[in-house]
Design brief:
The protein has 357 residues and is an alpha/beta fold. The chain has 11 helices and 12 strands. Helices cover 30% and strands 15% of the residues. Helix 8 runs parallel beside helix 9.
């Protein structure tokens, strides 16, 4: 058994209140009258899923997805870039440069590997040689044989490129070719296909943008939720053969303001929502403590109060799914993390702890 793990980051500050609306939402009607959608899907756990999140709701009702509302980073900063850095390094220091998934990879057996969909390697995978990035071809009419010929002639004999030739050939194998006709531009399809192969990577990273909804939020976020939901459905379908060994996490750097702004949108917030799912997850649960949305319960009078460190979800997955030991998690991976992560019973079949600290 090889555990698979997919980290999905929603860049821009996804509105957790729009994704999972509290059942008692009378306060929301007053604070954001133009942002509420119709047709939310009841979870039976105090929150309802946005109508565009049909696959999310289906996974939740099937016990394959849980969520942690009102969570955030220990460093409260409404800057996208600073918050994304903290999210990817797992550290409270602005000087941290290595990603927490890269640090986990360094502790895993030598044949474990990670891939990110995109033109650059994200911070979360920096700090290890066991990761690479991949994006779909930009040219529309590549010839398969020509690509292989160019790869061989360009790489062989070159002191810098020749060591990369096996990786070039392996990517062709993992993506089933080099032509755009064969290689999907859908990150969920590509990552799912790679992680499903017996000799493929074990960890995948997907970054999705367009979540900074300062204006015209209602239709914009519905479109993004639809894209995310379809992607999740694709991921489950393609990873069917390894789904029971798979955990995914969906998270954003922060949430949005509780009050609607003057341009039919919401502004940078603090407390957001994190979702954890997959065939290896004990789902169907709302985790954490909900603080409510009354004025006295808001963070700085405007945001959802973060009552839980979002890194606790990462730490629980690192321990019980990826096999990291508690000393490594608490002393190195996520410094100053609350010990409450030990009580997050998220994984159906817990991974035996590796002997590395």
């Amino acid at each position: 058994m090889r555990e698979r793990f997919v980290f999905i980051q929603l860049r821009g500050g996804m509105d957790g209140l729009a994704a999972l609306r509290p059942d008692n939402h009378e306060v929301l009607k007053q604070k954001r009258p133009g942002l509420l959608a119709d047709g939310y899907r009841d979870s039976g756990e105090g929150f309802a899923f946005h109508p565009a999140l049909a696959n999310h709701h289906r996974l939740f009702m099937n016990g394959e997805l849980s969520f942690l509302h009102a969570c955030g980073l220990p460093v409260h900063d409404r800057s996208h870039f600073k918050s994304q850095d903290h999210l990817e390094t797992g550290k409270n220091s602005a000087n941290a440069r290595h990603g927490w998934l890269a640090e986990i990879l360094e502790k895993l057996p030598s044949d474990r590997e990670a891939v990110a969909f995109g033109s650059t390697l994200p911070i979360i995978l920096r700090g290890t040689k066991k990761s690479f990035n991949w994006s779909a071809p930009r040219i529309t009419d590549e010839d398969e044989n020509l690509m292989r010929l160019l790869g061989t002639s360009l790489y062989e004999g070159d002191p810098v490129l020749e060591p990369l030739l096996p990786q070039f050939e392996r990517i062709g194998h993992l993506t089933d070719g080099y032509s755009r006709d064969d290689v999907s531009a859908d990150p969920f399809e590509t990552i799912g296909k790679m992680l499903s192969k017996k000799d493929g990577p074990d960890i995948g990273v997907i970054n999705l943008g367009n979540w900074d909804t300062h204006d015209n939020q209602k239709p914009r976020i519905a479109k993004e939720f639809s894209n995310l939901d379809q992607g999740l459905g694709t991921l489950k379908k393609i990873m069917d053969n390894v789904w029971n060994d798979t955990v995914f996490i969906i998270v954003s750097e922060f949430g949005r303001s509780v009050h609607e702004n003057g341009t039919n949108g919401s502004d940078h917030g603090t407390g957001g929502v994190c979702m954890i799912g997959g065939g290896a997850v004990k789902g169907g649960r709302s985790l954490g403590i909900w603080p409510g949305l009354e004025e006295l319960n808001l963070f700085e009078g405007r945001d959802v109060m973060p009552t839980y460190d979002v890194r606790t979800v990462f730490a629980a997955a690192a321990k019980n799914h990826l096999g990291m030991a508690e000393p490594f998690i608490e002393d190195h991976l996520f410094p100053e993390i609350p010990k409450s992560y030990r009580d997050l019973d998220l994984i159906r079949r817990r991974r035996k702890i590796f002997g590395f600290v």
